[in-house]
């Protein structure tokens, strides 16, 4: 029996070493509310992908910028993404919403960002991009995977429906009293 147990441990150890590289390269990110992605990003644009080319350790996607929601005054002509597991794969001739960072004059996006195709955004999300998300960046959206979830500040909204699209159609907005609440687009959040 001891020889069998030793053999099992040795096999498991070899399998573990074989997978260490894959595990180390895995991209780990938690689901992010669209508003939090907007607020955390340096640049948020709507753009159409028109070309693709490998550049060093990156993929360069040539784009036609349609609208700048947040960021710099310059027009972005290309988006860069990593060639590892954290990089995004985009389709040519398709429009996307990109949330990313600006590094050395280049816009970078990752799988951990929020980069859905434009056609998959709801009307509420598209509306929130132009006015609501920015006004709620002083609020914090707290993920809650199982109740109860404590909130230590009134300047936060609790995001409890991670597995559905419902919460993604809401915006967390600061109220007059300084607290934050979910806004549906119908009426301002009450005190």
From TrEMBL:
Disulfide pairings: 27-86, 29-112, 39-137, 139-180, 144-149, 157-172
One GO BP: response to hormone
Species the sequence originates in: Salmo salar
Main localisation: secreted
Signal peptide: 1-26
Binding positions (Zn(2+)): 27
Residue runs in coiled coils: none
Stretches that traverse the bilayer: none
Keywords attached to this entry: Disulfide bond, Metal-binding, Metalloenzyme inhibitor, Metalloprotease inhibitor, Protease inhibitor, Secreted, Signal, Zinc
Family the UniProt entry places it in: Belongs to the protease inhibitor I35 (TIMP) family.
Gene3D superfamilies, alphabetized: 2.40.50.120, Tissue inhibitor of metalloproteinase-1. Chain B, domain 1
Cellular compartment(s): Secreted
PROSITE patterns membership: NTR, TIMP
Family matches, as SUPFAM superfamilies: TIMP-like
PANTHER family: METALLOPROTEASE INHIBITOR, METALLOPROTEINASE INHIBITOR 2
Every NTR domain range: 27-137
Identification of the protein by name: Metalloproteinase inhibitor 2
Pfam families noted in UniProt: TIMP
Molecular functions per Gene Ontology: metal ion binding; metalloendopeptidase inhibitor activity; protease binding
GO cellular component: extracellular matrix; extracellular space
């Amino acid at each position: 029996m001891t020889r069998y147990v030793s053999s099992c441990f040795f096999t498991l150890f070899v399998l573990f070493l074989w997978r260490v590289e894959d595990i180390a390269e895995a991209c780990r990110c938690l689901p992010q509310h669209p508003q939090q992605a907007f607020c955390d990003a340096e640049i948020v644009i709507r753009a159409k992908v028109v070309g693709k080319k490998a550049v060093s350790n990156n993929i360069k996607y040539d784009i036609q910028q349609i609208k700048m929601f947040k960021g710099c005054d310059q027009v972005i002509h290309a988006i860069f993404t990593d060639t590892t597991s954290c990089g995004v794969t985009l389709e040519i001739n398709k429009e996307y919403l990109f949330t990313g960072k600006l590094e050395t004059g280049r816009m970078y996006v990752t799988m951990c960002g929020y980069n859905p195709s434009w056609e998959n955004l709801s009307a509420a999300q598209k509306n929130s991009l132009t006015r609501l998300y920015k006004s709620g960046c002083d609020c914090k959206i707290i993920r809650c995977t199982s109740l109860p979830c404590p909130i230590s500040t009134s300047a936060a909204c609790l995001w409890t429906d991670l597995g559905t699209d419902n919460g993604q159609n809401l915006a967390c907005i600061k109220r007059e009293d300084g607290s934050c609440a979910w806004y549906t687009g119908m009426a301002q959040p009450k005190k």
